[in-house]
Design goal:
The chain is mainly alpha-helical and 897 residues long. Among the domains are: 1-60; 128-263, no CATH class; 264-427; 660-781; 797-887. It is built from 33 helices and no strands. Helix 11 (292-312) packs parallel to helix 13 and helix 31 packs parallel to helix 33.
Length: 897
Amino acid sequence: MIWTLALVGALIGASFMHHAGGTAVGAALGYLLGRVLKLDTDLQALREELRIQRAVNAATAAKPKVPEAPAEKVEPLQVVPPPSWSVAAEQTPETISRPTAQPPPIPRTPVPAPVLAPSSPSLISNAIDWIRGGNPLARVGIVILFFGGAFLAKYAAEHSYFPIGLRMIALAIGALVLLAVGWGLRNSRAVYAQTLQGGGIAGLYLTVFAATRLYDLLLPSAALALLVLIAVVAAILAVVQNALALAVFGTAGGFMAPILLSTGSSNHIALFSYYTILNLGVFAIAWFRAWRVLNLVGFIFTFGIVGAFRATSYSPEKLLSADGFLLLFFLLYIGITILFALRQKPDLKGYVSGSLVFGLPLATFAIHGSMIEPYQYGLAWSALGFGVFYLLLAGVLHLTRRDNFSLLSEAFAALGVIFGSLAIPLAFDHQTTAASWAVEGAGLLWIGMRQQRWMARAFGVLLQALGGAAFLLDINHEVLGPAVFNRLTIGCAMLAIAGVLSGYWLQRNRETARPWEAGWSIIATLWGLAWWFYGGFSEIVRTLPQYERGADLILLTITAQLLWLYGSRLRWPFARHLTVALLPAAACIGILSGPAHPFIESAAVAWPVLFVIHYLLLYFSDADEDKTTQRLLPWQHAAAFWLLAVVSAWELHWQVDLQMYGVWSVLPWGLTPALLLFLCARASDWPGWPLQSHAKVYQEFVAPPLALWMAFWLAGTNLNSDGNSGNLIYMPLLNPLDIASVLILLCLNLWWKQLSPESALRRQTGASLWPRAAFAGLVFIWLNAALIRALHYGMGTPLTFDGISNSIIVQAALSIFWGLLGFIAMIWSARRSQREVWMVGAALMAVVVIKLFVVDTSGSGTLARIVAFLSVGALLLLTGYLSPLPPRRAEEEPAPE
């Protein structure tokens, strides 16, 4: 139907205007008329569905309730089925074989079957329906009469049969007669009367316009005054009689008058002034009546004629006047749109005319943009102006708090965002244009959410993906421009904002989403954050290479803070959960990327800021009732302590290594986690948050990895380091490495003792045998390493593995030392009846014996080996006397003989 009307309009326009512009105008008007008829048909179908639904509801409510069965026992009845469901059949006494006190049958009210909305009618059916509506003969007659009068006036003007003044007077009299007769019949035959009045109004428009433009019988000022009067009269008549047909006839006739009587003149100011008067009449009617069809008629004619003028008669010197009238028409129809939403019927509350709301800015911007296109950045500034205007208008409507304006304000806000995003590609290159597609995709997704249309949501997501792909195609080109305000950064920011907003909208409307949209919220949010960090990191590398590491960490910190704040304010849990990734991401940037030290490139400022913000977020998260947030809190506290240990130890190691040599630079790797382990061990004794408030988390969850780290450091350093004290004299057990080892062992022992017997870690280790064995092994490694280092600095023995294996002095000293350790363990365990420790000491003594015969016999003639054999033998004898094997706990003392 729509395209058929467009073709008919093109033929009519070509026949009247005899040039290509007439064809284009006719086709456009035909297309718009088809859209109007389509919208009107849809509206009628909607009203019919509402009427049917009300009828069904009324019938259901009127249906009588079934009376309760009588209390007394009633014999069963023999009921003959009625021939039909009619009331008469049910109430026939013959259908009951035995009368009793049974209540009368219940009349059944037939419920009308729902009527399906008709499909889109064809052009012929539309015309037939219009003719049948109201008074068909009057409608056909007034249309034919109007065209006939127009053709007669044109023919008489061309052949000069009658004086010009007489012709105009005759036309005016005829129009007034139609108007008077219609007004007289307004009560008896309302539809017929309104049709006549519409024809009279159109005739008056035609007469005044012809008398002024064609024959100069009226001054322009007088003609404008008459046109204003006619518009006012038509508006008053239509409003008083509530006559939509009258308003449409009067308005359409006024708009068609200059088209039918066109002489090819290019006086656009007079034409547009005339159209301004007509549109003021439409505006006045909209003040009292919500007639969508009338608004669309005025919109179609106005912007159709303006578009035809732009295509055929426009020249650059007419820019100010033509553009001024265009923007005036735009403002008038914005007002008409607002009035329509204000005056609409309650049963259609929230309904917005899409043709005006979205078609008006599209038509205006297209015509306006074609006129200012030659000017540099003209389109960009125009799009920005439209965007700001619509956003401000949406804000004003939102502040009114009217339900009628809710959907309209949201539509205006969406248009403002779209025009604002359109300004960027018009001012920048195609890379930024691709990014603007993502913004438009976000707008479509938002509209799809509001209107519950999955296809709009899917297309919005697809448009964002296509925008990102198109943006990547040009990503390798050199970026020019100032910091931040360049195509790469702005484009990435647009993609990021569109993605994050889409993620939030999808999450907020997840209850109404389709099953296959379940994961879109997470994907869209991560997509937006990926573009955010890509643009931010790229811009930092380009503009701040000397501060790259610190700026990267600051960007991470600010992003995490924004996610937490907006996630809390908007009740968006996933955004808050994403802050968990702050510390792992910081570790990847500041540690795993392989810098010389963590505080490189101004990171000395960024790391403290990052930890402060992180702990602030943890502090506020304690009050969060979200279960996922509470489950993630221990991991966040642990990650902070672990990362703090790594960063601090690494930076201290790097700084000490610059100032001193020897073992000093290795000590921070062991002492830093030892300090943090000490804080964890005494967490319940520290006042306030976070240690005391989360003492169990720090003691049982944060501390074990630190303890394991210290154990590996103590064993590895003592086995591999020579313990060089730098500028200090090496003193056994009083050198930096041995002192650090003692401190670490004390911290490990303190932490283990602070654990309660009911703790999960103690339950997992059984009777605490394995932790004690591990601690004893660390002490054994440290003491042996301390002995070997003491021999090295005191007697010059080697420190390499081969040298130690072949050194008679070292092997003899180790044998004596191990025997002494076994002796002490056996004596100590015997006095405390600890059989397991005694067995460990005995095993160590056995190892010493085996070592004496396997290793030490190669140097049996040396004094060192002799001393070793004698010392170990004496210790064995003394041990056997002083510390016999303790009995098992389950064994009882033997009875005395």
